[in-house]
Amino acid sequence: AIASLGCFGKHPQNVERDLERWTNKLYGLRLEPYFITLNLTLPGALRAEPVSVPMLLPHEWLHAVWEAGDMQRRVTLFGPGGQSGLEDYWRHQLCFEWARNHPGLHDPNKTFPLAFFTDGGEVYRNQETLWYFFRSSLSKGNTLDIILPLIGLPLEYVATREAFDEANEKITKALCWSTGWAEIGIGPEVGLYMEAFGKDTIRYALRGK
Fold first, then answer.
1. How far is residue 57's CA from residue 179's CA, in Å, rounded to a whole number?
2. What is the pTM assigned to this prediction?
């Protein structure tokens, strides 16, 4: 399904449409791509240039999963142990200093531990892409409603270590911004770049909620 997206393919103008259709069909959720700007060297270009790249934001993923109902919450967030499993997890982790001093751990009974990671894979032939994912540390399995995709970075467009580090830093900044709003528990009023949201978007309706 990811390979069908227009992103970095022949029809990049169709990325947003394809990604929204895919997530709707696969998850039964309505998610909107959010575009961040990365400096990429596209095929045939002599130098890197700013490119808008779509990603899915963690705080919007979490909101969509929660709104999908109890069954989806158990699969994606709680895992097989349910609420008691969440409580057991923190009961054990609070034996360690890192958990006791964690600035985001306000209520262990309502705080889901999340793991962010990357994995390589081909989307188009001969094009290696570094994918960013996240998941609940409590969930079990490897399906795409447990391992949640965030963004794909084609490595040939960041061929040098410096270019990769710059792109990774910008992606990480977007993830930190989004997870900060997830911790607060409300939707941001404006975007990462201080831009206003379109009035016909889901994130506009979720501002401050």
1. 8
2. 0.81
